[in-house]
Write a structure and sequence with these properties.
The complex is a heterotrimer of chains A (363), B (252) and C (294). Chain A is an all-alpha fold. Chain A contains 17 helices and two strands. Helices cover 76% and strands 1% of the residues of chain A. Classes of the chains: A mainly alpha (363), B alpha/beta (252), C mainly alpha (294). Chains in contact: A-B, A-C, B-C.
Chain lengths: 363, 252, 294
């Protein structure tokens, strides 16, 4: 039988070329964005979207690999922000050292949280993720000696006051892009490792993965800590740029759900899915905010959009595009599997029979 | 085969007074079973006789309420499934469970006997593992599908993939839950041949199966379950003539 | 803390615990029939409270009368929601995707409430709002007693329904062992829909009770869903008695801690208990085998 994997058709080569070109074009566009932006406001919108993308990519370490949906990742970005600010203000650390220090601290803190929430299956994990944001919101609002309470906290800018605002935006835009690239590189490396294979197996069928010898709890905990670390970095970076922190916005269920929506919309199983999702959702968010102001209606829009994605496109935009390409692939029918009509009938019969077998006590 | 020859074990899987109940139902009710090392053991019994629950207790998917499971003399009662897998017991699932949205080759690379953290962090392009995976895929006859997603291959091919995936962990003992379930006769024959070959290499098998032809032609030792405990055991011929077995099956 | 203050805190805690218990029973039902963590439960709770408030403002009648409409309405909404939305999700990813879907529903309800009724805080004023009873020297507001009575009657009714009727039997069978229930000829899909309807009906009753003595605003539901989810985990996912016991214990703890710590810090007791439970006994304290797997 011919090996489908080793023969690359002309169609595949063309596809690879188009993909490469699109990637290069997108990269150039991103890098040139600060020069292309007409004014400081547009530039600042770019920073916000980059920040969303960094958060979504960080979220996707857990969501994409293990399929565990965290609705409370705002806890880690918020802690990253507060940690950075407090290390600068209280300990007098260098801002960049504070950023990394705070992310490391959040990673350490994620250990007991992950320990508590990952030993059993999904439901407890989701519950803890939401509970964590709610508890942190309560604490940060009440514990005003440290967090500034509802008045918030001012974060000193890492670049001197003499650096003008557009210049600030530009630098932070590139810093955010750098962070995204690093996070993507780590995601890519995990994706190709045996560790990543084990994680994906957990996402597909956790019992089966464990029966094949994957230490599922240790794997989940490790990737959870990595995710918390990067989320905290993204949160701290945002805090350094924005210059002030308010508990309501730092520990917000909404911010957590943005991360989920962005990753899901883009496609959690693909490397660039969260970035694409962040650009789409982030742009729409900022557009609606500037066009219609902050109304209650954005909640409705967010809710409906999330529901639509969950119901009709749970695999995201990028995989949907991929299957669209597959549909126009000229040699598709024969290259993937050789199956005759008779075999197909046979297969269907098999599946039906298998379904009829009542499953014994196992769940 | 590049896989290592499993050393002949003196003792294999044994359970003592294993119990598990759900609510008021005693799914496994004091089962004491000794599987024969190096042989093909079959576990049969009418529907609802607790075979799958017993299976799940032995492989750590369910914690038994009481009793003991030992493997090669070591206590593995209630251990996590991945520890039992690491001890050398591999298993398949009823109704075939594979990782649908991963490629056939990736499916193969999930299961590997642990060799420390460093090994796991190394790239999955690890040549040894890939070579071993391809070898096993070739052995079960689905190597041409290695880059297809597992959900796109036929049910029979998925069954073969599951078996090959279990072999990646180099298990000395392999537990199969209904390997012939929902599979066409030609494939049943192929699976039977594979089991016999693997057994000849020194691997112990424990097979839960409803297909009596397969059980009788394949197994060396048959354990009959009814109401959560073994009621008879012996060679296929012995078991077939046992009145208790007929009673359990036919309810006479 | 003086004796009467202590007594008052305990009584208030028990009264609050009753409401928690009813709502947690609803959450447990959803989880039982479909393994769904229903984030929108408390959003429906607040919706019911708004409907009670709106009903009282428009008609001048007692808000309790709104139950006549909201309970059947919510039952139907719950049934339809399960049949049309949640049943569409793929079983393999049901737990996670249902969380997202119900989360999306919660956001939508919160947004719509804010849009229709504005973000202003609302409160029902009744003739008996200010009156209170003296119980062993402790002052207990009448509205709180009514709210508790409502919750207690509803819980009792739910218990009777589950234990004494054929429908309840089918529901319990579906919760304990869906495959076996199906083999016995129970239409588990329909039963799951009814389970959702019942769960949402508890939110209607709870919301009306809540509206009697609470100030309500659209984002209030976040203050409820956290504690409620903590309760069902501590009780053991899927166990209604477990949820009720945990609700009572935590209600009293919260009420007692409020005196020295204030309301905000007292609320953290739920989360601390949640983390402690997951550390020590991840399957919860009263849960059966369901809880071990989730």
């Amino acid at each position: 039988m011919p090996s489908a994997s080793s023969t690359r058709t002309g169609f595949d080569t063309a596809l690879l070329g188009i993909k490469g070109l699109a990637l290069v074009a997108a990269g150039v566009l991103v890098l040139a964005f600060p020069q292309l932006a007409p004014d400081a406001f547009i530039l600042s919108v770019g920073v916000v979207i980059a920040s969303y993308a960094a958060l979504a990519v960080s979220w996707n370490f857990v969501g994409g690999f293990t399929g565990y949906i965290s609705l409370g990742h705002a806890a880690y970005s918020g802690l990253g922000g507060y940690g950075t600010a407090l290390l600068i203000l209280e300990a007098g650390w260098n801002p960049w050292l504070s950023l990394v220090g705070s992310a490391v601290a959040v990673g350490v803190l994620a250990l007991p949280i992950g320990f508590a929430s990952l030993r059993v299956r999904g439901a407890s994990f989701v519950i803890v993720s939401i509970a964590l944001v709610l508890i942190l919101l309560l604490v940060s609002q009440s514990w005003s000696d440290v967090t500034g309470g509802s008045n918030g906290l001012r974060v000193p800018r890492p670049f001197g006051e003499d650096v003008l605002r557009p210049e600030q935006h530009e630098r932070f835009f590139y810093l955010h892009v750098g962070l995204i690239v690093i996070a993507l590189a780590v995601w890519w490396a995990i994706d190709r490792s045996r560790f990543g294979t084990g994680l994906k197996a957990i996402r597909e069928d956790e019992d089966k993965a464990q029966a094949l010898g994957v230490p599922t709890f240790a794997y989940k905990l490790t990737v959870f800590v990595i995710s918390a670390f990067f989320t905290a970095l993204a949160g701290g970076m945002y805090a350094l740029w924005f210059g002030s922190l308010d508990p309501i916005f730092q520990f917000s269920i909404l911010v957590g759900s943005y991360m989920v929506l962005m990753s899901l919309l883009g496609g959690i199983r693909s490397l660039l899915g969260p970035v694409v999702g962040a650009v789409i959702v982030g742009y729409s968010l900022e557009y609606f905010k500037s066009a219609y102001g902050d109304t209650q209606f954005h909640l409705v829009a967010l809710g409906l959009l999330l529901a639509l994605v969950v119901l009709f496109m749970p695999d995201g935009v990028l995989p949907a595009l991929g299957s669209l390409v597959d549909r126009i692939r000229p040699d598709k029918a024969t290259s993937i599997r050789e199956m005759t009509a008779a075999e197909l009938v046979e297969k269907n019969k098999e599946i039906d029979e298998a379904r009829r077998e009542p499953e014994e006590v196992s769940r | 085969m590049t896989t290592t020859q499993a050393p002949p074990a003196v003792r294999s899987l044994e359970t003592v007074e294993l119990r598990k109940s759900f609510g008021g139902v005693h799914a496994v009710d004091g089962a004491t079973v000794t599987f024969r090392p190096g042989k093909i053991n079959a576990l049969i019994g009418p529907n609802g006789s607790g075979k799958t629950t017993f299976f799940n207790c032995v492989t750590g998917m369910i914690k038994p309420d009481s009793g003991e499971v030992t493997y090669q003399g070591a206590d593995i009662t209630g251990k996590a499934p991945h520890r039992i897998a690491a001890a050398g017991v591999g298993r398949s699932f009823q109704l075939c469970r594979i990782f649908p949205r991963m490629t056939v080759l990736e499916n193969m690379l999930v299961g590997v006997r642990p060799e420390g953290l460093l090994h796991r962090l190394r790239g999955s392009r690890n040549a040894d593992d890939i070579a071993k995976a391809r070898e096993l895929l070739r052995r079960v006859g689905i190597d041409h599908l290695e880059s297809s997603e597992a959900r796109d291959i036929s049910y029979g091919q998925q069954k073969l993939l599951e078996l090959a995936g279990v072999l990646m962990t180099d298990p000395e003992t392999i537990m199969l839950d209904e390997p012939a379930g929902g599979v066409n006769p030609a494939l049943i024959g192929r699976i039977g041949t594979l089991v016999r070959e693997l057994n000849a290499e020194g691997r112990t098998f424990v097979i839960v199966e409803h297909n009596m032809d397969m059980v009788m032609s394949l197994s060396d030792h048959v354990v009959v379950f009814d109401r959560g405990r073994p009621i008879a055991e012996g060679t296929p011929a012995e078991v077939q003539g046992d009145p208790r077995v007929l009673e359990a099956y036919l309810g006479i | 803390m003086s004796g009467s203050l202590l007594l008052q805190s305990v009584i208030l805690g028990l009264l609050l615990g009753g409401l928690y218990a009813l709502l947690a029973a609803g959450l447990t039902l959803y989880f039982g029939v479909m393994r769904v963590v229903m984030i929108a439960h408390s959003a429906f709770l607040i919706l019911a409270a708004y409907l009670a408030w709106w009903f009282q403002r428009e008609t001048g009648l007692d808000p309790l009368l709104s139950l006549v409409v909201t309970v059947p309405l919510f039952f139907v909404v719950g049934f339809v929601m399960q049949r049309l939305l949640l049943a569409r999700l793929r079983p393999a990813t049901l737990t996670m995707m249902s969380v997202l879907l119900t989360f999306a529903i919660a956001l939508t309800i919160e947004g719509l409430l804010g849009y229709v009724f504005s973000g202003t805080q609302r409160r029902i004023q009744l003739d008996y709002s200010g009156s209170s009873l003296e119980v062993f020297g402790a002052n207990i507001a009448v509205v709180k007693l009514i709210a508790f009575g409502l919750a207690a009657v509803a819980l009792l009714g739910l218990w009777a329904l589950m234990k004494l009727t054929r429908f309840g039997q089918a529901l319990r069978a579906t919760i304990q062992h869906p495959e076996a229930a199906r083999l016995l000829g129970i239409n588990t899909d329909r039963i799951a829909g009814f389970g959702f309807g019942l769960g949402l009906a508890t939110a209607a009753i709870g919301g009306t009770a809540l509206s009697l003595d609470s100030t309500i605003y659209p984002s209030l539901h976040w203050h409820w869903i956290g504690p409620l989810m903590a309760i069902i985990v501590i009780g053991g996912l899927g166990s209604i008695p477990g949820a009720a016991i945990a609700a009572m214990l935590l209600g009293v703890s919260q009420s007692l801690l409020q005196v020295p710590l204030g309301t905000t810090w007292a609320q953290t007791v739920f989360y601390i208990a949640l983390f402690a439970t997951l550390m020590v006994r991840p399957q919860g304290f009263f849960g059966g085998r369901l809880a071990q797997r989730f």
